[in-house]
Amino acid sequence: MSQSVTLNHGDKTYEFPLVQGSENELGIDIKSLRAQTGLITYDPGFKNTGSCQSGITFLDGEEGILRYRGYSIEELADNASFLEVAYLLIFGEMPTAQQIKKFDADIRAESLVDEDIKIILKSFPKAAHPMGVLSSLTSALIAFNPSSVDIDSEKDMYEAIVLLMAKFPILCAWAHRKVKGLPLNYANTALDYEQNIAHMMFKMPHQDYVPNQKVISAINKLLILHADHEQNCSTSTVRIVGSSQAGLFASVSSGISALWGPLHGGANQAVLEMLEAIKADGGDTKKYMAKAKDKNDPFRLMGFGHRVYKNFDPRARIIKKAADEVLNDLGIEDPILEIAKGLEQEALNDPYFVDRKLYPNVDFYSGIIYRALGIPTEMFTVMFALGRLPGWIAQWREMRMQKEPIGRPRQIYTGATERSL
Ligand code: ACO
């Protein structure tokens, strides 16, 4: 097969090399396109544009494959801890026993934030959305930890990563406690990462908190499933902000804002609100299917469709099974789960959804599990952010270490041509 493509424009022919990935994906290397031809490419939503070369996560949307650093999501979700997966994503290999022990101990040692963070938190109205609070507090962390990271120093890089991994769950839990009007819990160094998340979120001032192992392992699985997803909207945001050499915390803070939108991480909240609305409306799934298909109706079946997965989302399969298990284990009967399963069945047999290759995505069932764990709806996207943190860190680190140029797309200008007042 030819290792290049030719482009004919006017009376000239140009040749561009192909780049090939380790899973044989091919791309046209157009780095010299404008210099050679004076042309740019036009690709709204970057549907055909590779922004980088990355060795972190592999996705095959046609086959429904997701792998972190070569390991399948199914294997990791069943056999690894979230902290091991975080280490794998960020540093490239599964940690040895000694490496994970040190990573865990370093994170536990840093699991405290400056007390003045509480003053900032206090100034938010109680009705503030926790994603806005989380993004602001992550940005505010910079002021309290103003170290500049020398990206050529593994030590500097490691310390910044440990700081963020340690302090981020505290901010997530505090955003939740603020909304609920509950006192803020500190991390407990005797607990592991997932136990601490549950402890900081759920411990009541007037009761002992005994972590439920089923809740902890469900949180572990959900965090792993959300940990990375290559160049999605929030990750691309983290990389592009970081490409201006903004720091790790600032870059992650912008990723949180990108994740908030209902077409991205905010979909898990939107799914549950949609299922609630269907239930309140008498459970008529057919009516909502018709709305989703009506081009004059802005309603979309939330939790369905994906930019990359055109077969099925492997995370959705794992989550659907986990939702059944968690509800069963905790002895919860939730009519919302039945409505979700009914909608899925209808969509999988409906030509509108089949023709457009629209399948349930990761968000379709995750909210049902979060709800069963006692996590309020407005916190769902925060839980997503908590899971995605190692992915954002890994992608930021890779981008800085590859010394990628500043991200700066071009445009086709369509405004007024030169005129005078
Ligand atoms: N309900 C009804 N119709 C849909 C849906 C849906 N959920 N998703 C896509 N379609 C239709 C579109 O109307 C379009 O139809 P047309 O070809 O007749 O115009 C076609 O399917 C293609 O849709 P696009 O929006 O062009 O696909 P795109 O790749 O740009 O969007 C997205 C993907 C944003 C995920 C979309 O499917 C969607 O809005 N889904 C609902 C929101 C959601 O669940 N987001 C979470 C995504 S996963 C994540 O970020 C973690």
Describe the overall structure.
By secondary structure, this protein is mostly helical. 52% of the residues lie in helices and 7% in strands. It contains 18 helices and 6 strands. It has helices at residues 33-37, 73-79, 82-91, 97-109, 117-123, 130-144, 154-180, 193-202, 213-226, 233-242, 248-260, 267-280, 285-293, 314-329, 335-348, 351-355, 363-372, 380-401, and strands spanning 4-9, 12-20, 26-28, 57-60, 65-68, 71-72. It has a 3-stranded antiparallel beta sheet. A hairpin with a 2-residue loop joins strand 5 and strand 6. Helix 12 crosses helix 17. The chain is globular. The mean pLDDT is 94. The structure holds acetyl coenzyme *A. Residues 263-265, 267, 292, 300-307, 356, 358, 361-363 line the site of acetyl coenzyme *A. Residues 263-265, 267, 292, 300-307, 356, 358, 361-363 line the site of acetyl coenzyme *A (ACO).
Q: What structural class results from the helix and strand content?
A: mainly alpha
* Sheet with the most strands: spatial strand order: 1-2-3
Number of distinct helices: 18
Q: Tell me, briefly, the overall form.
A: globular
Number of strands: 6
Helix fraction by DSSP (H/I, runs of at least 4): 40-55%
| Rg | 23 Å
Strand residue percentage: 5-15%
